[in-house]
Amino acid sequence: MKGFPAAIGVLFTLVYQASANVDHISLYASGGATIVEASATLVLPSAPNPITGDVALWSAIQLERDFIQGVSENAPAGLGYCTSLGSNWCNFAYALTPNAQNGKPVIAAPGARVRTHYKLNSSTNLWDQSVYINDQVVSTVSTSQGQKGNIFYVSVECASGSCAAAPAHSWEDISVVLSTANPNFKHTGNWNFGATGGEMSTSDGGKTWAFTTLNVPATTD
Q: pTM of the predicted model, to two decimals?
């Protein structure tokens, strides 16, 4: 993954490493501004067909050293963080730190809305991650004290095995908050690898950014 000399993917464990990922959104903070908060809601699609590898759909923030993300994965028995998934998805907060940490993995069916909220806590100076399924918080992690947020991602990953295409899916209510206003944070033109929508707007001069729905086509790594 970008920015990590010690790991090639974001779902890194002692057992397996990520093999490939496709970044549909990669937004870099600049001009002295850093990312201090973000949110993104994935509408879970159908499972890959066939289910032959560990397919992960995620949003994330690249910090100065760590990488924090909300993950929804589908994998056959023996891979991934949940067992007996079948056509469902395993959802959890994850932090790639020197001692990788993940929140409670919770299973949800296609059609569920999975929101991950990231915020640099002004009281503790930790990054708080919360994953919600249909507006109920299910998985949390707090890590990475004092680190600045540099890049916001929306991606598809084949974390292990030989993956079928990740089905087409959508991301709703994406938002990113910067430490200071930066009108140049706005992306113009097409997103990567055929993703459409995701038009950015700001109502406060460039500190808080909202996105229209992002539509991601069926994706292979």
A: 0.91
